[in-house]
Amino acid sequence: MPAGADTNSARVFYDFAIANLRKDPEKAADALYWSTRLEPTWADAYYARRIALLLSNRRRLRAYWFGDRRTIESKDIRQIDSLFYRALTINPFVSQTLDRQLYEAIADDIADEYERQGAGNTAEIRFYIDREMQRAPTATKAWLAYGDGRFEDAATLYAAAIKEDKRNEPLRVERARVLYQMNRLDSALAELKLATEDLRKRDKKDLVFVYQSKALAEHSIAIVNERLGNSDAAREAFGRALQEDLSYAPAHMQLAYMALEAKDTTGALTEMELAAQLSPNDAAIHFIYGFALIASNKFTPAEAEFRKAVAANADYAGPHFFLGRILEMGGKRPEALAEFRAYVARAAKTDPRHAEAEEYIAMLDHKD
User: Fold this and answer.
1) Domain count of the chain?
2) Is 15 within the bounds of a domain?
3) Is residue 19 part of a domain?
4) Which terminus of the chain has fewer CB atoms gathered within 10 Å of its CB, N or C?
5) Model pLDDT for residues 77-130, shown as the tens digit of each residue
6) 66 with 207: CB under 8 angstroms?
7) In angstroms, rounded to a whole number, what is the distance separating the alpha carbons of residues 295 and 306?
C-alpha cells in the first residue's frame, strides 16, 4: 500500500487492487478481500474480486471462458462466481467493464503459449488474435464492447446476437444491463421480462451459472420498475423473487426499504427480521436492521443485531459505533468504551462519525 494510505478505507484497497489487477491479480484479490470486509455493502468490490481471482489462474480462466463444464461446476469457480452473485444481489446493474481484463489475459496466455511453440513473438501473435476477433461471434463482440464502455455498440451487438441465438436468456440479461447503464429503462425492462420467461422454460439439465437465477432476474425487474416510479409493479416483482426462492433475503430488504418510504415502520421491521433470519452471517443486514430498530426506539433488539453484525464481520466499523452508543446509554461504560475504540481502529478517516466517536472515548475514558 502507498505510504500514508488509509488502510481502513475500502476505496483505498479497491483503487490499489485495480492498479495491480493485470500485473499481480493475486495481490489485487487480497486487497479486494479487505475492501469487502471494510464495506460489505459495496457491489463493485465483490465483482472486482471475482475478476481478480479469475485472472489469478490463466489456465483455469481459459477453460472457464471456453465453457468447460467441469471447470464451471468446480468448487473453486462456484466460490468465485458467488462473489458476482453477491455483487448482483446488492446492485443487479453493477458495472461489468472489468470483464475486458479477462479477454486481455486469455489473449495474452494464448500468445505466450504460441511463442513457446516457436510460432512468433508475443506481440505479433497478439496482433493476429486481436485481428481474428473481428470475426468472433456477435455475442463475444457485444461482451467486448461492454467491457470497453461502448454501450451503444454493445446494445446493438447484443440485439443482433439475440436474433442469432434462440436460447438467449443470458444475452437478454446482459443487454438489459447495458440499456440500464444508458438509462433506457423501458427497453431494459422489456428485455428482463423476456429473459425471465426464458429462464422458466430452461431445461433442468442445462448448464446454469450460480449468478443466473430467476429470483435475481425478478429483483432486476423490480429495481427498474422502482426507477420508473412503478412501485406496485416493483413490489410484485420482489414477491415473485421470493416465490422463486424463499431464502432470497435481498428481496426482503428491498421490500423493507419500500415500506420505510411508505412510512410503514412495522412492515419494514418485519421484512428486515425475515432477511436477518435468512442471512445469519450477513453483517450488513444485521447492521441495517439494528439501525432501523434504534430509529424505532427498540434498543434491546437493536443491541442484539449489532452484536450479530460484529460476530459476522468484526472488521466492519459501523456496528461497533452503534453498539457503543447503546451500551453507553445503558451505563455500561467499559463495554461502550471498548466498542468506540474498536470503531476508531476500523473506520476510514473520511467516516463522518469519527469525531463523535473520539468525543465519546474522551468522555468515557475520564469518567470516575
Assistant:
1) 1
2) no
3) no
4) C
5) 999 999 999 999 999 999 999 999 999 898 888 887 777 777 777 787 878 888
6) no
7) 14
Asked whether residue 339 is assigned to any structural domain, the reply reads yes
| Residues 228-271: tens digit of each pLDDT | 999 999 999 999 999 999 999 999 999 999 999 999 999 999 99
- N- to C-terminal Cα separation, the chain: 41
Under DSSP, is residue 330 helix (H, G, I), strand (E, B) or coil?
Answer: coil
The position carrying cell 488509509 is 6
CA 272/CA 282 separation, integer angstroms: 12
| Cα dihedral 239→209→165→60 (10° resolution) | 160
Which cell goes with 116?
Answer: 513457446
Q: In this structure, how many other beta carbons lie within 10 angstroms of the beta carbon of residue 14?
A: 23
How many contiguous H segments (helices) and E segments (strands) does the chain have? 21, 0
Q: How many CA atoms lie within 13 A of 184 on its CB side?
A: 15
Q: Which pLDDT band holds residue 22 (cuts at 50, 70, 90)? A: very high
b or e along 267-305 (b: 16 or more beta carbons within 10 Å of the residue's beta carbon)?
A: ebbebbbbbbebbeebbbbbbbbbbbbbeeeeeeebbbb
Nearest CA to 238 among 227, 230, 250? 250
For the CA atoms of 275, 262, 93, 10, the dihedral, rounded to the nearest 10 degrees, stands at: -70
Q: Are 296 and 265 in contact (CB under 8 A)?
A: yes
Tell me, what amino acid is at 175?
R
Which amino acid, one-letter code, is at 356? E
